[in-house]
């Protein structure tokens, strides 16, 4: 069992290195992916910052930056879907499956590469947030825990992206799925407190896993979150842990089953 796990990790790292080599050879799309959330932060900070009153005179960026952190984890779903679908469409995945390598290596390598990409995204966003005036007010351990929750959300969304990427027929089909990502991202507490929304809409937004992670991250960073009082809001930390675990428990096995059924 240990030997098989080591074999899978070694092969997975080989596949991940392939993605990293693509970064070096084609850095433009990768760098744009890191900077796009920064653009969102600047744009919404400038558009909404003057209109939203924060408690105790806090900067709007105190609310916005953790929300953009969580939103960036969701936006990474699109790149995962596209990469997986492109490899399947071009027959690259079938070539990997024909090699004497672990059957889990292809999806594991994609996970490793995309998690590294998301970690760099968070570093870039943190630097931009600090330059704009955002600060965390808790301990270093709490800040690390907040970033851990964000990466846990990304890990769960990775498996959704892999599953969808294995299900659709070609890269063009991914465009239809990408349209759904934006409403999910905006129907959350990423940009505004749910207390400012109509009651029914605020309730939906609070139960969005993105909101749970954003709210929990704000609490760990010591940033304000004047959302409406609710059960899910009071248990955001637990929801930010349980939600990704449930998504992973559902979509990881589905992805594995779908991967084994390719070309059958």
From TrEMBL:
Give the membrane topology. Multi-pass membrane protein
The keyword Transport is annotated on this UniProt entry: yes
InterPro entries xrefs: ABC2_TM (IPR013525), ABC2_TM_bact-type (IPR047817), ABC_2_transport (IPR000412), Nod_factor_ABC_transporter (IPR051784)
Task: Please give the superkingdom of this protein's source.
Answer: Bacteria
Where it sits in the cell: the answer is: Cell membrane; Membrane
Bilayer-crossing residues are 30-52, 64-86, 107-132, 144-168, 180-201, 239-259
Q: Which PANTHER family does the record associate with it?
A: NODULATION PROTEIN J
The protein, known as:
Transport permease protein
Q: Which lineage?
A: Bacteria, Bacillati, Actinomycetota, Actinomycetes, Propionibacteriales
